[in-house]
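Lay summary

Proteins are chains of building blocks that fold into shapes. Our project writes down both the chain and a compact code for its shape. Here are two examples, one after the other.
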Amino acid sequence: MVVLESWGMASVDLKLFREIFGETPFFSAGGWNDTNCWGVLEEGTYDAFAIGRLFLGTPDMIDRLRQGQPLNAYDRSRFYGPFPDREVGYTDYPTYEEVKSSGKP
């Protein structure tokens, strides 16, 4: 979504391909977040979508989406390693309750 917008192609979707390929499932990844994912599957343009980076940084993502809570920011510099401290930026992201109790935004 964000990438397509940066290329001046914000309105591009898979409708043309759906007409060509019929019942072939269509997946979309990249640019999805907690504000633009709602209703996408219901309208039928895509059959599934992935929220990868935000999922890595938000261990309780499903609960946060259900409750309308903000997602954690992720640390892209920790996506690829190897790192001597593998857990940093991988298994140490806080849950919403941990963020709320810490008093930090």
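And here is the second example, written the same way.
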Amino acid sequence: MEKKSSTLSVLLGAAFLMATSAIGPGFLTQTTVFTQTLMASFGFVILISIIIDIGVQLNIWRVIAVSKKRAQDIANDVFPGLGVFLAILIVMGGLAFNIGNIGGAGLGVNVLFGLPPEMGALFSGIVAICIFLVREAGKAMDRFAQVMGLIMIGLTIYVMFTAQPPVGEAVVKTFVPDTIDYLAIVTLVGGTVGGYITFAGGHRLLDAGITGKESLPKVTSSAVSAIGIASIMRIFLFLAALGIVAQGLTLDPANPPASVFRYAAGEVGYKFFGVVMWAAAVSSVIGAAYTSVSFIQTLSKTVEKHQKWVIIGFIALSTLVFVMIGRPVRVLVLVGALNGLILPIALGVILVAAHKTKIVGDYKHPLWLTIFGVLIVIAMSLMGGYTLFTGIPQLFK
């Protein structure tokens, strides 16, 4: 009974780790901004992105579980050196976005207590480090992700109800939109399962020993649950923002999600935003650090031996960079564009691996998942390439 309870805790922990890794400061901002521009039709974007996210997640988590290997080791088995390349991309993206996440945590503390963002960032970095100083860091990380996820969803539901969104219109436009924004779809997919995010839960299950064909039902359930948790948060935040913009109120361009919470519930709502922003940012910091280091630990015996301290160093470095330099916007945007290309590369590698017996043994990967995965790789490659070659030159003009 105790083992069953422990397994359930790990499955939930992996789902929440992936979901809370996705729900960071960028997630809050992009959801609010797209709602402001697309109004109720943004529901269609969310629907399509959820379907794509599930396709990505199921392909990657199932192959990791069956092969009993981390993504970088799978990539090296597909083509020697490919795993090192993938690990470099993941760590670059994880470090850059962790600097942004630490900044978001500092903003959350600033909203709650009026402290300078730099002081808030330092405090938040220490909290994240303390999670990994606990003897059973894996369990502590699982529990922290679950608690933060539930707090974020609970507060956002409250704000959604006070915003009184036009739910009927949102439901109709989700299936019959006025406009279809393909870039918004790609942005949402990249923000939910791009870069290191989709691997957070998959690698956590691997570390907990939930692997092999016999574990596939559990892995599938955890993968879908992870997307479900992130999507619930996205839907409630969308409805909250829609309720505000539908009233003709203008959001603060400097901090759109804070405007939603403040308009909906006054100063109490603004404080709620501080809690949500802090919870989203710190849980993303933990997810990014854990997953980024998991990508290099099998490539280096030293890293593998001192995994916990390398994770702590990763968080400390992210915090110090933000405190000393501030948010390096150009670097964040540049690596953001690169991060958009990580998903098709990583998913493409996994799809090839899914059909190599030396990697997955006698496991037969579902044909529909393979076809779905190939379509996602093509679509994300085209859109990621567009962003890289048109958006980045504009940034550095």
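What can we say about the second shape? The mean pLDDT is 85.
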